[in-house]
Write a structure and sequence with these properties.
Elements: H1 2-5, H2 31-34, H3 43-56, E1 67-68, H4 83-93, H5 105-116, H6 133-146, E2 157-161, H7 162-174, E3 183-189, H8 193-202, E4 205-210, H9 221-231, E5 236-243, H10 255-268, E6 271-275, H11 292-298, H12 301-304, E7 309-314, E8 327-333, H13 337-348, H14 355-365, H15 375-400, E9 406-407, E10 416-417, E11 420-421, H16 425-433, H17 438-450, E12 452-453, E13 455-456, E14 469-472, H18 477-498
Parallel strand pairs: 1-12, 3-4, 3-5, 5-6, 6-7
Antiparallel strand pairs: 2-8, 7-8, 9-11, 10-14, 13-14
Helix pairs in contact: 3-17, 4-5, 4-14, 6-14, 7-8, 15-18, 16-17, 17-18
Length: about 500
């Protein structure tokens, strides 16, 4: 048999199976994983890392550095952490520092309170699967303050490993059925690729509804209805996801829009998922963040007693930017009690979210108060960070709109712009012939020629025949100006070359 197989004897086992054959191959792996795509860390970013390595090795390039504007990683872009948060975390991680007189007393008292809630008074211990009880209580009080007194039960709060963990967990609960009964989940296009990636991995049906770019990425109920009616022909739509403020589009939905969405969800019996991680990032005049929960309860018992809602927040964005700590929470409203027991079971499988992230979440929802030693510095740092982001949002919009062939909506909130770019037909053809999306082709050329790393709009979804890129507004102002000038110059040259 060894001779028939044509393999050397040393590569054969006694039963005739090749000894070097892999158990796990691309052909035998979970097929849903192969469908997962995540644009913000995709091929463009991988190439950017290679370019950085080449520059460090002395390879000559048309640029001196790579500027990564592909991902909302505030601290990597130079945003400074909030002093009070880091002081308390330092005290919690190394309690010997509680003897150090250079730390303010409110930071010490906060650290002691957090440590007393931890097993063995240590951040290194496991917490309850749902999260540390005192932190969940603080989150509940924060939500009540934010929402003007709408009650919040700490038992409805689940601390999570960033908002992403909570979102994926909820999707796991929602997905069921086969064929035409398979769960459909409505997501906005453009969308944050976490949603499409999670749905692909879970084998759910992605139901696209399009935001209206001509009306500053607003959400039209007629479009929701169109998408729902179409989807019901081939799946069972059960959930509606909203990102507000928007990622990648940077819009802030009006209160009227949120009311309309809640009525739509009630009428069509859809589970609402509200991704509200950018709730402090609102810049444009006339825009204001309205939480789905607050609007839901202000609409009265007809809705507040029936509409099922999960909302999400995180330590990673806003003025904190503490992505690496992976802190977050979700609140569930009107969840069936038996399903809630299953949710608690599901989160217990992973034991608990990172405890330092839980501690940080506690500080976000319970920052220094007036009269405490750290209050003035905290407010000064918080205000400066948000003001800086507001200025950069305006700068990005203004500069991009001076470029012929680029149209950028106002960056009302969040941390991104998602401008529409015109790509000449000649470039579209060259990209298509190379098996690339035209905006991927554009962004890759931009990276190779300028060192600017952006993400093509095709990674987020866009209307057929339109092209975009997403860029963060996070780089320091001086670097952001360089970035925008380079984009401006590149777009002109690119258009000239392919016209």
């Amino acid at each position: 048999s060894e001779t028939r197989r044509g393999l050397p004897r040393e590569e054969m086992t006694e039963n005739g199976v090749p000894s070097k054959a892999k158990v796990l191959t691309v052909d035998t792996m979970n097929p849903t994983v192969k469908k997962v795509e995540y644009a913000v860390r995709g091929p463009i970013v991988q190439r950017a890392v290679e370019l950085e390595r080449e520059l460090s090795q002395g390879v000559k390039k048309p640029f001196a550095e790579v500027i990564k504007a592909n991902i909302g990683d505030a601290h990597a872009m130079g945003q400074q952490p909030i002093t009070f948060f880091r002081q308390v975390l330092a005290l919690c991680l190394y309690p010997e520092l509680l003897k150090d007189r250079t730390f303010p007393e409110d930071a010490k008292s906060r650290a002691r309170r957090i440590l007393q809630s931890c097993g063995g008074n240590s951040l290194g211990s496991y917490s309850a699967s749902q999260g540390i009880e005192s932190v969940r209580q603080d989150v509940a009080r924060y939500i009540e303050r934010r929402d003007g007194g709408v009650p919040c039960d700490p038992d409805n709060i689940y601390l999570t490993t960033g908002a992403s963990d909570g979102i994926v967990t909820m999707l796991k609960l929602l997905v069921c059925g086969e064929g035409a009964t398979r769960t459909g989940v409505m997501i906005s296009i453009p969308q944050y690729p976490l949603y499409s990636a999670a749905l692909a991995e879970l084998g759910a049906v992605q139901v696209n509804y399009y935001l209206n770019e001509e009306k500053c990425w607003s959400l039209d109920i007629s479009e929701l209805q169109r998408a729902l009616d179409e989807a019901r022909k081939h799946c069972n739509p059960r959930a509606l996801c909203i990102i507000n403020p928007g990622n990648p589009t940077g819009q802030v939905q009006s209160r009227q829009c949120i009311e309309d969405v809640i009525r739509f969800a009630a009428k069509e019996r859809l589970f609402l998922m509200a991704d509200e991680v950018y709730q402090d990032n609102v810049y444009a005049d006339g825009c204001q963040f309205h939480s789905f929960k607050k609007v839901l309860f202000e609409m009265g018992p007809e809705y507040s007693n029936t509409v099922e809602l999960a909302s999400f927040h995180s330590t990673s964005k806003c003025y904190m930017g503490e992505c690496g700590f992976r802190g977050g929470y979700m609140e569930v409203i009107n969840m069936d009690t038996e399903v809630k027991a299953q949710l608690t079971k599901l989160v217990s499988v992973r034991l608990c979210p990172p405890v330092p992230g839980q501690a940080l979440m506690d500080l976000v929802v319970n920052p220094p108060q007036p009269g405490e030693p750290s209050y003035e510095k905290f407010i000064k740092e918080r205000t400066a960070t948000l003001s800086d982001l507001a200025e950069k949002a305006k700068l990005t919009e203004e500069v991009l709109n001076t470029v012929e062939g680029i149209t950028c909506n106002p960056v009302q909130g969040a941390m991104y712009s998602f401008p529409c770019i015109s790509i000449p037909e000649k470039a579209v053809k060259e990209a298509t012939d190379a098996g690339q999306q035209p905006d991927m082709f554009y962004c890759m050329k931009l990276l190779e020629e300028t060192g600017i790393c952006l993400v093509p709009g095709s990674g987020f979804g866009q209307k057929e025949g339109t092209y975009h890129f997403r860029m963060t507004i996070l780089p320091p102002t001086d670097k952001l100006k360089i970035l925008l000038d380079k984009v401006k110059e590149f777009h002109w040259k690119f258009t000239q070359k392919y016209s």
